[in-house]
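[09:14] KT: can someone run the structure on this one? pasting the chain below
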Amino acid sequence: MNILVIGATGLIGSYTMAALQRAGHHAIGVSRSKPSGTLVACKELDIASLTDAQAWLPHLEGIDAVINCVGIIRESRPGDFQRLHHQMPIALFAACEQAGVARVVQVSALGSEPHAVTAYWRSKGTADADLLQRRLAGTVVRPSLVYGDEGASSRVFTMMASLPLIIMPMAHRALVQPIHVENLADVLVTLLTSDGPVPRELAAVGPRALSIAAYIETLRAAMAWPPGLVLTLPAAPARLLARCAELLPGSALTVDSLRMLEQSADGSNTADSGPVRAILGRPLRRPEDFTGPAQRARAVCAWALPACRLVIALLWILTAYASWFGWPHTQSLDWLAQCGLPHAWAEPALLGASLLDATIGVIVLVARRSWIWPLQMTLVLGYTAIMSFCLPQFWMHPFGPLSKNLPLLALMFIMWRLTANSEKQD
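[09:31] RB: done, structure tokens below
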């Protein structure tokens, strides 16, 4: 079969593409940017602009089935939910009806309905309702929570599982029923390619429901971490935190996502796993088997790298402040004189060094490029070499002003290599 996969670079879309190819089908991906790796057949389209059925018709020629995997958790621009979750899918479904596409699958989310409490659920639910009333062999698939090593939410949960203490909203009341993306992709392939009847609606859930706290503890145990503690953040500070987090472009915590967590306490984000297990034809993968000790390093790096970046930036900024404002200039100028610097140059040199330290601290904080790390290493090595030659007594100082540069250099080197590796992957 020739199958069009909308949203081919997302977590669900990419796994579905791979599963279709393994099953011997011709999968054609559609995404905003051309995918890399094994996705050979791909169309690069501005999906958000395809809100008219006529715009989709040329892309449906020779297509036997279509799956829409497009989904965003928050808007980058006002109206993104409306364009990507509502208008685009409805135009796609109308075009499929006109083109006589044999089968259409819409990947939605549990809780989605036209009159739901959040814009995310409403936009998804409106498109779901449109598909179900059309003369199409269509299925709306509603996952609860999808786990995949590359998934954004999965990385957040494994990161939290690597910490001994977590405080989060609705930790012990919000319920999820996570399904592994490999199981979900295989289910979607069956729905797309089956010759027999398929359900009109399917709750794609894992084998059992868990509270958020229990899910984190399950991932923690799977990665062989000792038991931790998950505490509940009360509602009032949680709402305040969500409003503040909305100001950060990449934050998944928003007022609406908090509202969805609160809604899931009544079990609306859970369902009977029997139907999806029957379609899969084998037992569903358990949350205990989602991850393992091999994921420990990446889980720790998810929070450790930003933390290291922050403390190193603060180190430079505090050093700049201490050099110019906090420490007596007379002693600093005396040290510079011992290094052979003429008295007339000492004060400007002290000011220049303080400004350089502050500038580096700010760059570390805001720039996400690997070149900043070898620059820092060069500067630290330069400071260390000069002081070792001119002020060797600082090696024997009980507070270790020079010996502490050794682990700092090692940390900077690690940050350099990890940052360079992430840039290469991007």
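[09:33] KT: thanks! The chain has a mean pLDDT of 92.
[09:34] RB: yep, looked fine to me
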